[in-house]
Design brief:
mainly alpha, 17 helices, 71% helix, globular
Length: 438
Amino acid sequence: MTARPAAWVLLLASLFGCLQLANVTGRDTPDSRNYLSYALSLGGADKAEAVDRTVAYLCASRGDLASRGHSVDVGGFRGPDPGPEVREECRAHYGRILHERLREGRTAGHTAPFMGERFMRIFEVRPGYPVLLVPFVSLLGTVWGLWAAGVCVAAGGGVLVYLVLRTLRVPVVPALVGQVLYYVLPTGVTAMRPMTEGTMTALTLTALWGCALVLCGRREDGRGAGRRAGVWLVAGSLALLFAVKHSQALFLGGCLAVAFGAVAWRRRRSGRPAGEGVAAVAAVTAGAAVCTVVAARLLGYPSEHDSLQDLLTDHFARPDRADPWGEFWRLEAGFWAEWLRRQLLQPLFPALLAAGAWGALRQRPAFGAALVAAAATGVISQAAHPDIAVDRLLVMAWLLPVLGVPLLLARYAGPRVRLPGQSGGPLERTPRAARPVE
């Protein structure tokens, strides 16, 4: 990365971070309180302190949201601000309930007992994101710590998009477009939420960077070293994903194994060798998927049956369903019918998916297969939890336009405009002869 492109990458990341100052407070979600209490516990706080600080963050967030809603309520903005009252009622409610549960002996694990033990077990087996939060909340407190962690994760995801595209030898301007797309599409706002999705997306992008290194290295630049680095990036990303959310490690490992297996089969069918890098990634990802299943069983992680009952019983608030799979498939069919109806009314997402898939598979077929595989993990995650009110699970699918549209621009754009201050002629398209055969 030369000095001037690097400066543009950092400028875009910094601009994105500055824009997030508009949303420092009011960012609590039902899951973020579990991750926050987990991080506070890892940072040395006892259970009572972790409960009090988490409740303070949760209730301050609710109070801020109430104040914002009041300020734009056409019928009620003339009345008193309800924010302070909401904050105090929230603190009294959660403080009483949680401290009663602590006195009853519900002090096991790292998370505060907001819900039943069976539900909290789902979060106990996801230490990766709380570990990431520890230095931020320890140094900056809960509000600014969670915000700063979100900025670092989200801004870093955009930088990874640029690195992936440049590894694919996309010119600088389309690569910067990819970084901007990451920030302005739902990938950016989802990465900023104090939940695991931002970290998962960044690790998925790291794995895709490894795939790009394996597929697009040059012989004269030490292709063997680049290939090995790429394989290690893929393996390391899947290992870290297991700590963040093991289901995503399973989905990504399995999907990439299928993609690289298909690439190897296609190459052999056309009379070419599959390539050591392709075979290595296929083996590593398939092995990671198998190891994820085995490790989850050995460690006693919640199973797919637990996840199914959690979905159908409103987080175990109701008795377990006698026929969970039958109900699940009925819900699945209804979910996708309604989802498709909504997409047809506002078809931006399907259009971007089609454009991204066309650009990636047309310009870089082998990497395009890996990108489609990574995007498919979002569809699989949503299918495993068909709740029409939860759309963040599809965030991985947005990586298809984030990386595919710049590849489409690189292929079909004409002479490119120079970056301000950039010397030399316009950014030239990579000559066809210089592209590696896929």
